[in-house]
Amino acid sequence: MLDTKGMRFPIDVILVCIRWYAAYPLSYRHLEEMMEERGVVVDHSSINRWAIRFLPLLEKVFRKYKRPVGGSWRMDETSISVKGVWKYLYRAVDKEGKTVDFLLTARRDKAAATRFFDKAMQTNGIPEKVTMDKSGANKAAIDKINAGMDTPMVVRQVKYLNNVVEQDHRAVKRVTKPMLNFKSFRSTRNVLAGIELMHMIRKGQLMMEDSDAMSFADQFYALAGQIRPV
Predict the structure, then answer these.
(1) DSSP character for 157?
(2) Do residues 129 and 144 lie in contact, with contact meaning Cβ atoms separated by under 8 Å?
(3) Mean pLDDT of 13-30
(4) Which of 54, 82, 108, 141, by CA, is between 20 and 30 Å from 214?
(5) Band of the pLDDT at 5, cuts 50, 70, 90?
(6) How far from 53 is each of 58, 93, 98, 188, 203, CA to CA, in Å?
(7) pLDDT band at 230 (very low <50, low <70, confident <90, very high)
C-alpha cells in the first residue's frame, strides 16, 4: 500500500481523490467541494500534492501487470500547455486501441521521437509495423532505429490509418481540459502518468488475478495494494 506516513488523512481518502482526479474531467477545487459534501475537509493543494506524489508510483506498478499489446502500432504526438508553453505528449496504441506507451517531452523533434520509441520498445518489444503521420522528425527517428536492425520494422505514413491514436488522444485531453494550465513540467508528467493509467485500466489493460471481474474502481484499489512502502 502507498506510504502515507506523516499524513493526516487516511489512505482511502487519498486514493479516492487521486482516482477521481485522474479518471474524470475535474479540477482540484471541484474535488475539494465534493469531499466537503462528504464531510471531509481537505484543501485542494493537498490533493495536488497527493496526485503528483502518488500517481506516477501507481503507473509504475501497473506496468508489471500490463497486458501485452499487439505488434502493429499507431504513433502520434499531441500538445499539452505547461505554464503557457506547449510541450508534447508522444503516444502510441496498437491497432485495437490499447495503449502501448507515452512520453512527455519539451520539444517535438527527432531526438524526442527517438526517446519515445526507445522507451516503448524497451517495455513492449519491437513492433512489426509502425504507422504515423507525415512528420519528418518521427520518420527520421524510426529510420535511425531501423538502420541498426537485422529485420527492420515496416513504416507506414498513412494519415487515415492513424485515426485510432488521434481519437485516443481525446480521452486524455478530455480529462486535462478542466485542469487549466499545468504549473511545471514535473507535475504535468506525473499527473499525465495517472491519467494514462486510468485510461489503460478502463481499456481492460490490467492483468491481475480476477481483474476482469472487478469494477474500474476496484482494479485501481487492487493495484494500489501492490505497492510496498520503502
Answers:
(1) -
(2) no
(3) 94
(4) 54
(5) low
(6) 10, 26, 26, 12, 24
(7) very low
More confident residue, 181 or 56: 56
Is there a contact between 23 and 171 (Cβ–Cβ < 8 Å)?
no
Query: How many CA atoms are closer than 13 Å to the CA of 34, on its beta-carbon side?
Result: 14
Report residue 223 CA to chain centroid gap: 15
- 3-class DSSP state of 156: strand
b/e burial code for range 112-135 (CB count within 10 A of at least 16 → b) = bbbebbeebbeebeebebbbbbeb
β-pair partners for 163: none
CA distance 76 to 159: 10
Closest CA to 51 of 174, 173, 184, 228: 184
Q: Is 158 helix (H, G, I), strand (E, B) or coil?
A: coil
Looking at the domain that runs over 72-175, which CATH code has it been given?
Answer: 3.30.420.10
Break the chain into its structural domains and give their ranges.
11-65+183-224, 72-175
Q: Which amino acid, 2?
A: L
DSSP letter string, 43-62:
-HHHHHHHHHHHHHHHHHHH
pLDDT tens by residue, 24-47: 999 999 999 999 999 999 999 999
Q: Are 76 and 165 in contact (CB under 8 A)?
A: yes
